[in-house]
Amino acid sequence: MGLFVIGINHTTAPVKLREQVAFAAETLPPALASLQRLENLSAAVILSTCNRTEIYALHTDSKTRSAEEGSASQAARDAVVMWLAEHHDTAVTELTSSIYWHEDGEAIHHLVRVSAGLDSMVLGEAQIFGQVKDAFEAAETARTLDPELSQIQQSVYRVVKKVRSETDVGQSSLSMASIAVDLASRLFADLSLCRAMLIGAGETIELVGQHLMAAGINSPIIANRTLANARRLSDELDGTAISLTDISKYLSQCDIVVSSTGSELPILGKGSVESALRERRRKPIFMVDLAVPRDIEPEVDTLRDVYLYSIDDLEQIAAENLHQRRGAAEEAEQIIDAAVNDIQKALRERGASETITKFRQHHNEIKNSELQKALARLQKGDEPESVLTTLANQLMNKMIHAPSVSMRQASSEGQKELLDTIHRLYDLDR
User: Fold this and answer.
1) CA atoms of 187 and 176, how far apart (whole Å)
2) Residue 97 backbone dihedrals phi, psi, to 5 degrees
């Protein structure tokens, strides 16, 4: 099959390394094009979220440069790790201790677990499934998918839907958004008296806004690089839309700040927060940075009246959620194990179909060639019996010539397996 995945996630790498190798949405097309140009790859998908960066790809044996460089899979792995390090200007040695690698069936199994939310910091989170879909759509747009990877994609989607419908793994599961609001409620006695600023306008921030409204917070401030998107979300949440450049004007009014953007540089620095604290006369600000790379400078956490939480800080609550949902996860794992076996079987059958097609085409060409010769002889008036006998002999000789040569060579080299296969294919022991 040649499928493999290589990546890092919240269990193998700290947030600093994860943000170093994260891909913003706008950088995916050129990154995918660059990745597929690697000698060992025929198809590729990049999945990049706040908790993981993973590359799913297909390698081809024919592109292995030499036997000394190891197997095709090893060569592909080395090439992708080198590419990832160079693309993000990161030392390979920084990546190697945090990278995991799965191949063929294990790679499919991993992709299903990721898509179903079983490999997430928050067990059963639904958002990751949409992110996986976005990753494959980006690859399709960039033309880095091939039929086999597309077939795997569709099969994985069916399994995830089955897991969601037949288990409770995704029912009422916590999300990063709900965890953030829960933490805020522990700091402030009455959230309805708080003012919130949400930075970003994507799905995560929208979820945070919905949880804040459910907790009693009204009229949040929505800050976004594109003001039209901020207005769209502020209309839904009955809030106020501002641009990122206006954050400092409103920051001192806010008790809660939650940020999740795709920016590659921090949006909130220590100086801006210090100024806001002075205006607030040291009233505390609760901040949650859900972005990778981080939106809020880590140095902000050193300020006395700021309570700053990053993605990694939410892990303990997520672990509690994991314990509660372990039973549902075990049911999901059983479904996934059975489904992955079916997916692999279907892929093997697909490979056989291609071989059968080529097999039939090859013999059809022989048949047509000999048939044309026979028809030409009949038109010349040759004896039909002689023509048919010659046709039958020529067909037999040409169809068994290549297999006969291979069998003699296999026998001389002691390759008994090939001879056994011929016996099975033609049922010679009947």
Assistant:
1) 17
2) -75, -15
Read off the pLDDT of residues 388-420 as tens digits, 9 standing for 90 and up.
999 889 888 888 888 888 888 888 888 888 888
β-sheet with 41-48: strand ranges across: 41-48, 52-59, 3-9, 100-103
- The neighbouring-strand residues paired with 41 are 59
For residues 8 and 197, give the distance between their C-alpha atoms in angstroms, rounded to a whole number: 31
Q: List the catalytic residue out of 21, 50, 138, 322.
A: 50
The CA dihedral of 389, 394, 399, 402, to the nearest 10 degrees, is 140
Give the whole-angstrom CA distance, residue 10 versus residue 315. Answer: 9
Homologous superfamily of domain range 3-172? Glutamyl-tRNA reductase, N-terminal domain (3.30.460.30)
Kindly state the DSSP code that residue 296 receives in the 8-state scheme: B
Tell me the C-alpha distance between 278 and 305, whole Å. Answer: 10
Measured at the CA of 249, the angle between CA 248 and CA 254, to 5 degrees, comes to 80
CB atoms within 10 A of CB 274: 14
Domain residue ranges in the chain: 3-172, 176-313, 350-423
Q: Give percent of the chain with pLDDT exceeding 70.
A: 92
Give the whole-angstrom CA distance, residue 221 versus residue 205.
11
3-state SS track over 340-364: HHHHHHHHHHHHHHHHHHHHHHHHH
Per-residue model confidence as pLDDT tens digits over 329-365: 777 888 888 888 888 777 776 666 677 778 888 888 8
Are the C-beta atoms of residues 75 and 65 closer than 8 Å to each other?
yes
Question: What CATH class has 176-313?
Answer: alpha beta
| Whether 50 is catalytic | yes
Token code pair at residue 80: 């992708």
Q: Could you tell me if 310 and 289 are in contact, meaning their C-beta atoms sit under 8 angstroms apart?
A: yes
Domains 3-172 and 176-313 are alike in CATH topology: no
Q: Which residues contact 257 (CB under 8 A, 6 or more apart)?
A: 196, 197, 198, 199, 251, 268, 285, 286, 287, 288, 296
CB 35 within 8 A of CB 57: yes
Consecutive H or E run containing 134: helix 127-141
Look at residues 47, 1, 56 and name the one whose alpha carbon lies nearest to residue 22.
Answer: 47
